[in-house]
């Protein structure tokens, strides 16, 4: 990752995804203002920010759910305006949402191929290639280290971490070039977060460019190569890993002086009368 | 739910996967309910088990079942349609009045009716996907508009509340053969609608379980946002489902017309609930994402057995609706109970 910090002016370093001064307004609400970021193959770009910082808006623009109002959005050098998630997928951008990733009641194998189902036969006899779908799902998950004996079980019966992994395995299997992950570790325990981060790293090693959206600087710092900080819809900083330490990232992420003020307030607060309810 | 607890629960699920799969079929509760209703009427009504009685029961089941199939698909896709009952009548009225007024071959009217009915289905789906209003409201609007149109338009054209007879018109015999004839199989007289019904159940089951569209139907009902995010054409799937409902309403409407050769414009009101009830008894979740076409057929069969069984048991028909309601409620409760047990076992 030596070229991660170098200036990208050479042809060899055209980013997979490049946002330059991108803005988005909802009516008179400024959701995103002048945000820039780059995603390179084999690298993880982390987007950090608190609630309401504009992370969701950013992800929706990259995923093709919303269109930006100003600035430029380039995919492999081409300026684009994505009209739909299908557009984004066709250009190799796969997005894994925190809670929208899967249809809980459907079996794992149907979820795995949802939207890109392989078929066999022709005309009215064109049908799902169920055997291939089952076997491929099992094999693709096994490669990611998940051994499901029964790919027929509803995906809702899997744990949160496993569901994220299925979604990541799906994106890798369908040849995504850019993987966008929305808060993949937000609802998970420590151990499962570790498992998910391992697969994020595995996707990076497979040569994908990864955008990791999170509000956890510790998780971000473990795997990230670049860090973009968002605050109230605007850029609050952009750093390569070599230029910033975890402590500084955490401090900036938490809002620096605001955090100091908060700790000051908390120190002076009286001890609570009783423990919080069960 | 902690990560640890989920992992343990997952291990247990894996071991009992097969038993769970068998018990977890959506139509299981309905099959148990149907067996109970069947045994009940076999005991209380002597004539219930005769072949001719069963043929009558099957016919009654098929008239509901033909519509219950697409209604079940629509419910799996997460939506309702309250306009189905009167849409059947509209379809029959259009067919009959077009043929009579234009003095055209009956088949021309049948074709025009297909286009008009599909357009109504498209309207429902288009309004739903465009306005994002609940399907309950959209189709309630369509229901009322069609009810008014059926009566108003028929009176305007025919001067009375029913259409003119088309029984002596060109093409009627062949149209009747397709939509309202009888076939004798092994000495038993069977209505052709039974074949339409079973055929539709087979096609719908094939579509649901073995085609891309089927995968999409489950997905848009289970989690429309997730489906959209992976590139499923959610709006097209929903509009398609409403048009499938319209297509079956067209079949039912043509049967209604060809059985008698005239149509009463006020018919059909209230039938939409029978179709929905059949689908729900058959295991469709009211919230979408789960159900089966075969289940809707079993649900329709329960309806057929109940409505005719009361006649064969020689009960006072004044009580018909009460028994019908009680039977349907019991069957649904049994269905829910069986499903709960099946889930608890896993």
Would you tell me which CATH topology of chain B applies? ABC transporter involved in vitamin B12 uptake, BtuC
- Total number of distinct structural domains of chain B: 1
The percentage of residues in β strands of chain B lies in under 5%
Major sheet of chain A: size, sense and barrel closure? 6 strands, mixed
Q: Secondary-structure blueprint of this entry?
A:
The complex is a heterodimer of chains A (278) and B (346).
Chain A: E1 17-26, E2 29-39, E3 44-49, H1 55-63, E4 70-75, E5 78-79, H2 85-90, E6 93-96, H3 108-112, E7 119-120, E8 127-128, H4 130-143, H5 160-173, E9 178-182, H6 190-205, E10 209-214, H7 217-223, E11 226-231, E12 234-240, H8 246-253, H9 257-268
Parallel strand pairs in A: 3-10, 3-11, 6-9, 9-10
Antiparallel strand pairs in A: 1-2, 1-4, 4-5, 7-8, 11-12
Chain B: H1 3-15, H2 17-23, H3 28-44, H4 51-76, H5 84-102, H6 106-131, H7 135-158, H8 172-180, E1 182-185, E2 188-191, H9 192-210, H10 212-222, H11 224-229, H12 234-260, H13 271-281, H14 293-312, H15 320-345
Antiparallel strand pairs in B: 1-2
Kindly describe this structure.
The complex is a heterodimer of chains A (278) and B (346). Chain A has one domain (11-267): 3-Layer(aba) Sandwich (Rossmann fold). Mean pLDDT of chain A is 82; it is low at 1-11. Chain A has 278 residues and is of the alpha/beta class. In chain A, α4 packs across α5 (160-173) and α5 runs parallel beside α6 (190-205). In chain A, the strands form three sheets. A six-stranded mixed beta sheet of chain A has the order 6-9-10-3-11-12, with helices on both faces. Chain A has helices spanning 55-63, 85-90, 108-112, 130-143, 160-173, 190-205, 217-223, 246-253, 257-268; strands at residues 17-26, 29-39, 44-49, 70-75, 78-79, 93-96, 119-120, 127-128, 178-182, 209-214, 226-231, 234-240. Helices cover 33% and strands 24% of the residues of chain A. Chain B has 346 residues and is an all-alpha fold. Chain B has one domain (28-341): ABC transporter involved in vitamin B12 uptake, BtuC. Chain B is built from 15 helices and two strands. In chain B, β1 (182-185) and β2 form a beta hairpin. Chain B starts with a helix and ends with a helix. Mean pLDDT of chain B is 87; it is low at 1-16. Classes of the chains: A alpha/beta (278), B mainly alpha (346). The A-B interface holds A 63, 65, 84-86, 89, 95, 97, 100-106, 110, 113-117, 119, 126-128, 130, 148-150, 152-153, 157-162, 188-189, 191-192 and B 2-4, 6-7, 9-10, 13-14, 17, 21, 206, 210-212, 214-216, 218-219, 222-223, 225-232, 289-290.
């Amino acid at each position: 990752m030596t070229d991660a910090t170098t200036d990208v002016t050479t042809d060899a370093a055209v980013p997979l995804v490049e946002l330059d001064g991108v803005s988005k307004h909802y009516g008179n609400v400024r959701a995103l203002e002048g945000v820039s970021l780059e995603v390179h193959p084999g690298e993880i770009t982390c987007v950090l920010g608190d609630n309401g910082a504009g992370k969701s808006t950013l992800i929706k623009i990259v995923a093709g759910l919303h269109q930006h109002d100003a600035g430029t959005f380039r995919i492999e050098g081409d300026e684009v305006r994505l009209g739909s998630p299908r557009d984004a997928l066709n250009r190799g951008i796969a997005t894994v949402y925190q809670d929208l990733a899967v249809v809980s009641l459907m079996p794992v194998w149907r979820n795995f191929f949802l939207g890109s189902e392989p078929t066999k036969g022709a005309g009215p006899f064109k049908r799902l290639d169920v055997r291939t779908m089952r076997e491929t799902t099992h094999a693709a998950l096994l490669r990611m280290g998940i051994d499901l004996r029964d790919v027929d079980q509803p995906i809702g019966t899997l744990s949160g971490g496993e569901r994220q992994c299925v979604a990541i395995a799906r994106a890798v299997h369908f040849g995504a070039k850019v993987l966008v992950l929305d808060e993949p570790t937000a609802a998970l325990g420590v151990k499962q977060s570790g498992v998910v981060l391992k697969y994020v790293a595995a996707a990076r090693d497979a040569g994908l460019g990864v955008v990791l959206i999170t509000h956890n600087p510790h998780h971000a710092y473990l795997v990230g190569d670049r860090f973009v900080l968002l605050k109230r819809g605007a850029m609050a900083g952009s750093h390569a890993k070599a230029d910033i330490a975890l402590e500084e990232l955490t401090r900036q992420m938490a809002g620096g002086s605001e955090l100091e003020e908060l700790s000051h307030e908390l120190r002076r607060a009286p001890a609570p009368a009783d423990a919080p309810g069960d | 739910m902690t990560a640890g607890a989920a992992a343990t629960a997952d291990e247990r699920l894996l071991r009992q996967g097969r038993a769970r799969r068998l018990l977890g079929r959506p139509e299981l509760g309905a099959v148990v309910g149907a067996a109970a209703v069947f045994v009940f009427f076999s005991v209380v009504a002597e004539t219930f088990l005769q072949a001719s009685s069963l043929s009558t029961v099957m016919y009654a089941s098929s008239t509901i079942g033909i519509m219950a199939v697409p209604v079940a698909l629509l419910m799996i896709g997460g939506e309702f349609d309250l306009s189905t009952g009167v849409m059947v009548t509209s379809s029959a009225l259009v067919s009959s009045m077009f043929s009579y007024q234009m003095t055209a071959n009956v088949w021309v009217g049948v074709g025009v009716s297909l286009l008009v009915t599909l357009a109504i289905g498209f309207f429902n789906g288009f309004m739903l996907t465009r306005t994002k209003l609940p399907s309950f409201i959209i189709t309630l609007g369509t229901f009322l508009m069609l009810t008014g149109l059926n009566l108003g338009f028929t009176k305007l054209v025919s001067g009375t509340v029913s259409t003119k007879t088309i029984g002596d018109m060109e093409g009627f015999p062949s149209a009747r053969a397709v939509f309202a004839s009888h076939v004798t199989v092994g000495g038993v007289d069977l209505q052709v609608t039974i074949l339409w019904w079973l055929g539709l159940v087979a096609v719908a089951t094939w579509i649901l379980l073995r085609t891309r569209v089927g995968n999409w139907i489950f997905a848009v009902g289970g989690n429309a946002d997730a489906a959209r995010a992976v590139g499923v054409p959610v709006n097209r799937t929903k509009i398609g489902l409403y048009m499938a409902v319209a297509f079956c309403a067209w079949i039912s409407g043509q049967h209604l017309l060809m059985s008698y050769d005239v149509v009463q414009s006020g018919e059909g009101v209230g039938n939409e609930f029978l179709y929905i009830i059949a689908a729900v008894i058959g295991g469709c979740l009211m919230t979408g994402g789960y159900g089966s076409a075969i289940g809707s057929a079993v649900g329709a069969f329960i309806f057929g057995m109940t409505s005719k069984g009361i006649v064969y048991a020689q009960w006072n028909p004044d009580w018909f609706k009460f028994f019908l309601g009680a039977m349907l409620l019991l069957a649904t409760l049994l269905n829910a109970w069986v499903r709960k047990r099946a889930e608890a076992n896993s």
